Amino acid sequence: MTQPLLTIRNVRKNFGSVKAIDGIDLDIHENEFFALLGASGSGKTTLLRMLAGFELPDDGEVILDGKDVSQVPPNHRPVNLMFQSYALFPNMSVARNIAYGLEMEKLPKAEIRSRVDEILEVIQLSHLANRKPDQLSGGQRQRVALARALVKRPRLLLLDEPLGALDKKLRGEMQLELKRIQNEFGITFIIVTHDQEEALVMADRVAILKDGRLLQSGTPQEIYEHPESRFAADFIGVMNFFPVTQESGHLRAQDGSTITANTPLESAARGVAAVRPERLHIGGNDRDNSISGTVSAIAYHGLDLQVHLKTPASPDPVLIRLTADVAERAPIGVGDSLTVHWAAKDTRVFAV
Amino acid sequence: MHWRIAPQIQARRMIDRKPLYLMTPALAWLTAFMVAPCLMILALAFFQRGIYGGIDYTFTLENIALVFDPLYANIFLKSAFIAGLSATIAVVIGYAAAFAITAAPAKRQAMLLFFAVLPFWSNYLVRTYAWIVMLNREGLIAGAAQWLGYDGELPKMLYTETAVVIGLVYNYLPFVILACYAPLSRLNPEIAEASRDLGGNGWTTFRRVILPMTVPGIATGFVFVFVLSIGNFVTPALLGGGQFQMIGNLVYAQFLTANDWPFGAALSMFLIAIMMGLLTLQTYASERASGARREE
Question: What is the pLDDT of residues A200-215, one digit of tens each?
Fold first, then answer.
């Protein structure tokens, strides 16, 4: 294993009595697209600002390229941050905004010009080089902010909720665009987001933060398929939860049916069993892992149907995802009785 | 808080939407008690002075011509210099104070602003007399110097140009603090951080990002101090001690001692023209600055 580009070791940060970061360890590698995912107050933005140098850790180390940079001020770090508000300089044109960081490096004028031109090409805004930021659309501003940080060719590019201000369609396009640019430049990206879909689509690896702690990190697939906590299971993707009790090695749901899982519930009498909607299949009376109920709602999503099932096994409606062709073969209506089942390998259990 | 500027822009925009008649009482008041008397006084500039004071209603341009007499033109220049110097000093001090206030925790800012503006609520004369107490030969400053062990001759402080500038700066500083505080407090902190992030040190960030973005506040503060200072006659009279005259004193003398109302009116006309010119320029500039920001 090569040395990680960035090592965060036992980092802590308090604001008054609030533990914003409560002991986080993380390794991030060269060329990775890494996502810090969490709700507001999880500490993800504080952690990002710490990597940029705007917050100093009370304890622990931030090691970049083998050097401890914990106390290095922002203007002396080979790290750039794309701010959530974009923070473009309103008094400067697009080109001047992008050139600013290179001028700070005191590069020759000719080199600055060619690098600005080059990056304007990449973000396809060459024709707007002389516009002021307030004459740009939100999407254009976002790209200028990206270019301004990227043009410095940092070791690490930090992005604070980069797509938050964009509308849904543009967000989808920019997700792919960001990934393309990251690939092209070969720069390590760390993105902060509260949007799990964004994290899943873009990131090579994701870290889930909660209350200033790291809950789980891994590839999107690892976290989706093997969440280590109920929170992670709930936060990433959609999950159905069934409260269960454990009796002599068997899990029993609230409606009395038996639930089986490949991993047992460890040392707890109560817990929840969790199953992804796409793992539920129609049919399967009188066997383990089957739940019956009444269809309470059906939502059409183009590629698939999402069916809500009211069942005594769960306080919340169970969500089932049926592909269009399955739904066509066996039409379902609201009010119908329905039984679904799933395989033991698709059950996750968590203690509560 | 752009003081007079922002309400003007707002008023102009409201005309598009709100019924005009709501403005009638204010307009009527201003016209009857402010605009009309002013115009009447200014009209006197084109008449001759009566032999025993009073007005001889014969048209003449002599009063206007007299304003350009080197004797009076120099007083204009001198006044402009004093006003410009006062405005510059007030802007430097006021901007620094406003900057420090915005750096304080949000909770404390209102209180700091309150204290900065506090002297403004006391009487102008009292405040100016207070400076006499400070600056005269047996005053507080002289006393403090003595107490500290300095027994040499102190330079004359009261009744000098310096005293006038000190008085003007002191009196109009709250304007500048408020005018500079407004754009400084509106700055998105992430913009200054972006400059640091891109490799700028504190000074570069200030010079290239913060300062240009707060120029409208500086301009407002400067123009206000300049306009209020150039026509001021109380401070030069009290702190300048009649050693030198500013336009305000000259106008005052024409109306109240020389009894030459036509010449006083001619002087006032030029003074008002200078003020209006500057205020218009400044309104136009800040409107363009905020207009550009609105454009999309």
Answer: 889 999 999 999 999 9
Residue B180: burial class (beta carbons within 10 Å; 0-12, 13-18, 19+): buried
Q: Mean pLDDT in chain B?
A: 88
Element containing residue B150 per DSSP (H, E): none
At the second CATH level, the architecture of A6-225 is 3-Layer(aba) Sandwich (3.40)
**A87/B contact by beta carbon, under 8 A:** yes
Number of structural domains in chain B:
1
Structural fold of domain A238-351: OB fold (Dihydrolipoamide Acetyltransferase, E2P) (2.40.50)
Residue A266 token pair: 């460890």
Predicted confidence at residue B290, as pLDDT, reads 64
Residue A165 burial (CB count, 10 A): 15
Q: Which pLDDT does position B140 carry in this prediction?
A: 87
Q: How many Å apart are CA B259 and CA B41, to the nearest integer?
A: 13
Q: Residue B94: name the closest of B193, B214, B207 by CA.
A: B214
Flag if B190 and A100 touch (Cβ within 8 Å).
no
| pLDDT tens sequence across A79-92 | 999 999 999 999 99
Residue with tokens 């501003």: A141
**Confidence (pLDDT) at B13:** 55
Contacts of B296 in chain A (CB under 8 A): 134-135
